[in-house]
Amino acid sequence: MSKQVAVILSGCGVQDGSEIYETTLTLLRLDQLGIGYRCFAPNIDQHDVIDHRNGESLSEERRNVLVESARLARGDVAPLEELEADEFDAVILPGGFGVAKNLSTFAEDGADLVIQAGLGEALADFYEDRKPIGLMCIAPVMVPRLLGPGIAVTVGHDPSVAGAISAMGGLHRSCGVEDIVVDFENRVVTTPAYMLATRIGEAATGIFKLVDRIDELMDL
Hints:
The protein is of the alpha/beta class. It has helices at residues 20-32, 65-72, 98-101, 106-109, 117-128, 143-147, 159-167, 200-218, and strands spanning 4-8, 36-41, 50-51, 56-57, 77-79, 90-93, 133-136, 152-153, 171-172, 181-183, 188-191.
């Protein structure tokens, strides 16, 4: 496997970590294309822990983002601080509310969000080296803070999140669940995934397109 992609996770579970289906579909498509990958996550405490049966906060429970991400990566996950852009050809960030809680403060601060320090450093190197960057679901909301203003992204049709992207200087493009938005100049690819998906098959179509386009951009 000559091409290598870094996948950045934010825990395990849609409401407090990485969205499990989005992550699995990403890794599946990379493998189908013969692309190698390595998962990374910040070694920090989760913002909160949610009971996924009822959406209630387990206020007394504490979990670690790196430890929880290991569930998704079958144990093969490294601390985000070990991610070196020069060892990879691209990077992909699945969604899930861990993006808005653990990788950033969007869940609490909206357009005033702050990016987790290690993530900002890691993505800056990929961007400066013009290596493709893929983001899905809620993750594109971080793009204006991570990479700068004027980059076209999508979260689907959500007006509040789109408004936050615009308020930060980003460019939001409406998009269906089975499609992608590509900013060729900045080499950024986004798809709505479970911001819109009602079935895993819907999410898969857009995510597979995203990974396929990342694959194509790695050759350019």
